[in-house]
Amino acid sequence: MIRKAEEKDIKALREVYDEARERMIEDGNTRQWKAGHPPLEVILDDIHNGSLYVLIIDGKVVGAFSIIGKEPSYDTIYEGSWPAGDYDYVTIHRVAGKRESRHVLKTAVETAEKINPIIRIDTHVDNKKMQALVSKYGFKYCGKITLPDGEMRIAFQRG
Question: How confident is the model at residue 102 (pLDDT cuts 50, 70, 90)?
Answer without folding.
Answer: confident
